[in-house]
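Thread: quick sanity check before group meeting

JM: Hey all, I'm pulling together slides for Thursday and realized we never actually wrote out the predicted structure for the chain we discussed last week. Dropping the sequence here so it's in one place. If anyone has concerns about the input, flag it before I start.
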Amino acid sequence: MKKLDLVAVVLLVVGGLNWGLVALARFDLVAAVFGMDFGETNALTRIVYGLVGLSAVYVAAQLRAIPRRWATTSPTHAHTTAS
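JM (edit): ok, ran it. Output follows.
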């Protein structure tokens, strides 16, 4: 699951940077990577946009579970008894 978490976060960063560039510079990074102009789409760009959207749904649904998966100590081993 950690690999899926990483993929989702990378896609969210790509999507966030793309929307930031759209808002600030009217530049669509995803379209540019695929040799298209601002606002143009094709099957590949729609796949990327779709994966970004799915990543947002995944991260939103897993918001509480992700930090637990990435914690360095498990909750059952966090408490130790003093001798």
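AS: nice. Residues 2-69 form one domain. The chain has one domain: 2-69.
JM: adding both to the slides.
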